[in-house]
């Protein structure tokens, strides 16, 4: 029977030899007696007593699958209670006849909120607790001496079929580089596609200028070609680009079908809306041309050519919208490349079309073609080619959608499926774009009038548009690509109520894009003239030089323009489209007022240069307003100290680089002339000096982002 061992007999509190009693007297001869082995406090030392049982196990934390156990929303769980609660008192007095009392039952449910989200009975610990929890499990142990009797087994043992060895587990797939690696890959893919698209777009612009010239015919086609883009952005483009990405991400996360039904409803709704819009604007083409440029509308020949071009170009609004919706569906599914690469097909079709026009009629310098002499067949050729380019661009998205598992099925059940909320959100985005485009229309009219009053080439709307095309290229390649990959992540963090993650992603996007945006903006300031005289030499030396001055005025405005784009993505992630609208109203008002002031104060030759500088000034004002509002939205913290310090140090590194690079460029132009060869040498030499000085200064200043970029380049080169 169970009985206490002898060593415990006669020892009470304070007895000799007990842990709490006085020491035992020495034996004969002063030699202390040999202590008995059992009554020693062998179990007093508990190595786990000082450990905090509430601390998460590091191994379990590393292997914990957070996707399977998402954190509960804020306020959904109660305050944590003590890990161990006092059991209720026993209803009866202890029975002295029993060796050990039965412990009271555990209370129902877990006594505290466990960090793993599992039941308390199923939680596993590493260490002694794990071993103790498995002591009662009966497991068949192999006989350690079976091999000694294997040669004595009879026929039964011999006839037993040996068990087949279990197949080796498949090797685990290599892990990816995590969130940062996926973001860099997506950004690199989109940046490469956008770079190729912009480069082919430059070639398209050069071919257009060679075919139509920089006179009134070129202005007429430019007005008609930019009109569909403006109307598309005014109607549905702003909402599609900013509002529907968070909605698509949310539908993929919450809907049972992964958001496919929502995407089909959205695509059907956009197709119907764009079809109605195209029908209306084609009939309103003369009024739209007059709104864009009263100068062109006042010339009967130029107005006729512009209206005819517009009626060929306006149906491209439909295919623009289809392309954007398909691209956003792919972006929500993590496929970022198609939307950036398919515009290359549009540029190729248009380059082929204008090349065919040059092959038939010759260049503008050879044919001296104008608005009075261009044949109807030539207008029809250019119009059909422009429309065909957008059709090919939109249809090229279909294979990518099928590869992603999306099948388009028209759905007209729009009510009660969240599209009403999306339309309400898009309402403010449409107003946002309306305010922005209102400022653009004002600047277009002022620039057209200034170019006519100056009487010089390269001082009107065409020069403003060409310089802005070069200026906006880094924004589209770098900032837009980075934020297109970050926007789904920011939307998920905003949906989960994690403002810290939103802040970190916005800070990450700002600082990473600044490494390239800041030196490029200073490069435009220093080398704008040789850049334009090289690219737009076909328009004439005087016009190209005037475009260079306009590009220099645009230059530094690229920094606040890029920052504004990133900051507004934070509002869109929270489905707040009202704040960007008010912010854009401020930007458009400042831009229009400053441009009007430049038109009145400056000479006509320099009025457009002042308008370009006003564009950057307006966005600098807008950044200050948007930054303060987003900081308040995120709880007063937008990582402003780190972001401002990064931009300030990058600007300090870029100032001496721009001075030296610009000096080399203008000295080269003075020595070799501003022809194609002199412009190329000035641009290459000045750009190399500027980039080299910037990198050296940045490394000396220990700018972390520059060091990271240099390390990445060296890693790619294998050095």
Descriptive key words:
719 residues, 0% strand, mainly alpha, globular, 27 helices
What does this structure look like?
There is one protein chain. The chain is mainly alpha-helical. It has 27 helices and no strands. It has helices at 58-63, 128-133, 155-159, 178-212, 216-242, 244-254, 260-283, 285-292, 294-297, 300-313, 316-332, 337-341, 343-361, 364-367, 376-395, 398-403, 419-454, 461-471, 473-495, 499-535, 541-554, 558-573, 578-601, 604-633, 640-672, 676-700, 704-717. Helix 4 packs antiparallel against helix 19 (473-495), helix 5 packs antiparallel against helix 17 and helix 20 (499-535) packs parallel to helix 25. The chain is globular and about 120 Å long. The relative contact order is 0.07. The model is unreliable at 1-22 and 109-180 (pLDDT under 50).
Q: Please work out how many helical segments DSSP would assign.
A: 27
Rounded to an integer, what's the Rg over CA atoms?
37 Å
Low-confidence stretches: 1-22, 109-180
The class by helix and strand makeup works out as mainly alpha
Provide the residue-averaged pLDDT.
74
Give the SSE order as H and E letters: HHHHHHHHHHHHHHHHHHHHHHHHHHH
Taken from the alpha-carbon principal axes, the silhouette is globular
Report on the biggest sheet. none
Number of strands: 0
User: What is the straight-line distance between the termini?
Assistant: 78 Å
Blueprint of the fold:
Layout: H1 58-63, H2 128-133, H3 155-159, H4 178-212, H5 216-242, H6 244-254, H7 260-283, H8 285-292, H9 294-297, H10 300-313, H11 316-332, H12 337-341, H13 343-361, H14 364-367, H15 376-395, H16 398-403, H17 419-454, H18 461-471, H19 473-495, H20 499-535, H21 541-554, H22 558-573, H23 578-601, H24 604-633, H25 640-672, H26 676-700, H27 704-717
């Amino acid at each position: 029977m169970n009985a206490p061992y002898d060593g415990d007999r006669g020892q009470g509190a304070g007895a000799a030899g007990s842990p709490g009693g006085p020491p035992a007297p020495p034996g004969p001869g002063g030699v202390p007696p040999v202590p008995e082995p059992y009554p020693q406090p062998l179990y007093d030392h508990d190595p786990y007593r000082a450990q905090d049982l509430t601390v998460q196990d590091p191994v379990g934390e590393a292997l914990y699958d957070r996707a399977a156990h998402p954190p509960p929303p804020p306020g959904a769980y109660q305050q944590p209670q003590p890990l161990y609660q006092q059991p209720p008192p026993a209803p009866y007095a202890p029975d002295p006849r029993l060796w050990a009392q039965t412990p009271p039952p555990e209370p129902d449910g877990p006594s505290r909120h466990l960090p793993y989200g599992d039941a308390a009975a199923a939680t596993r610990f590493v260490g002694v607790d794990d071993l103790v929890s498995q002591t009662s499990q009966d497991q068949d142990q192999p006989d350690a001496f079976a091999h000694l009797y294997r040669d004595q087994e009879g026929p039964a043992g011999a006839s037993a079929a040996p068990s087949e060895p279990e197949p080796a587990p498949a090797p685990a797939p290599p892990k990816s580089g995590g969130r940062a690696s996926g973001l860099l890959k997506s950004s690199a893919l989109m940046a490469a596609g956008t770079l190729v698209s912009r480069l082919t777009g430059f070639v398209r612009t050069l071919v257009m200028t060679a075919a139509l010239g920089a006179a009134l015919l070129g202005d007429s086609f430019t007005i008609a070609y930019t009109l569909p883009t403006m109307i598309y952005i005014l109607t549905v483009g702003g909402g599609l680009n900013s509002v529907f990405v968070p909605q698509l991400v949310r539908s993929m996360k919450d809907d049972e079908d992964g958001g496919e039904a929502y995407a089909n409803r959205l695509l059907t709704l956009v197709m119907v809306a764009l079809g109605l819009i195209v029908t209306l604007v084609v009939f309103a083409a003369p009024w739209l041309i007059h709104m864009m440029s009263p100068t062109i509308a006042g010339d009967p020949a130029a107005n006729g050519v512009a209206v005819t071009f517009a009626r060929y170009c306006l149906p491209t609004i439909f295919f623009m919208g289809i392309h954007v919706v398909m691209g956003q569906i792919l972006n929500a599914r993590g496929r970022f490349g198609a939307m950036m690469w398919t515009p290359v097909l549009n540029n190729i079709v248009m380059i082929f079309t204008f090349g065919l026009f040059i092959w038939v009629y010759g260049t503008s310098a050879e044919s001296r073609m104008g608005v009075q002499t261009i044949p109807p067949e030539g207008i029809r050729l250019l119009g059909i080619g422009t429309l065909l380019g957008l059709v090919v661009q939109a249809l090229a998205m279909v294979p990518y959608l099928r590869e992603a598992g999306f099948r388009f099925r028209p759905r007209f059940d729009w009510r009660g499926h969240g599209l009403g909320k999306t339309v309400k959100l898009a309402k403010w985005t449409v107003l946002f774009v309306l305010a922005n485009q209102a400022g653009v229309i004002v600047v277009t009219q002022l620039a057209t009038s200034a170019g006519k009053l100056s009487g010089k080439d390269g001082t009107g709307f065409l020069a403003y548009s060409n310089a802005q095309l070069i200026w906006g290229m880094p924004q589209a390649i770098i900032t837009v690509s980075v934020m297109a990959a970050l926007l789904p992540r920011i939307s998920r963090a905003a949906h989960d109520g994690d403002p810290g993650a939103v802040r970190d992603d916005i800070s990450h996007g700002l600082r990473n894009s600044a490494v390239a945006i800041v030196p490029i903006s200073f490069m435009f300031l220093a080398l704008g003239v040789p850049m334009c005289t090289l690219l737009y030499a076909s328009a004439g030396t005087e016009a190209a030089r005037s475009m260079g001055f306009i590009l220099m005025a645009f230059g530094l405005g690229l920094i606040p323009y890029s920052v504004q784009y990133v900051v507004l993505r934070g509002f869109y992630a929270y489905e707040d489209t009202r704040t960007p609208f008010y912010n854009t109203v401020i930007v458009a008002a400042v831009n229009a007022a400053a441009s009007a002031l430049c038109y009145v104060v400056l000479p006509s030759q320099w009025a457009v240069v002042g308008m370009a500088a006003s564009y950057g000034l307006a966005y600098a004002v807008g950044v200050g307003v948007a930054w303060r509002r987003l900081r308040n939205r995120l709880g007063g913290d937008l990582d402003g100290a780190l972001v401002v310090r990064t931009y300030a140090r990058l600007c300090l590194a870029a100032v001496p680089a721009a001075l030296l690079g610009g000096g080399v460029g203008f000295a080269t132009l003075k020595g070799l002339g501003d022809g194609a060869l002199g412009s190329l040498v000035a641009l290459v030499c000045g750009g190399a000096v500027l980039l080299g000085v910037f990198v050296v200064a940045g490394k000396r200043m220990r700018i972390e982002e520059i060091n990271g970029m240099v390390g990445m380049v060296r890693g790619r080169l294998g050095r």
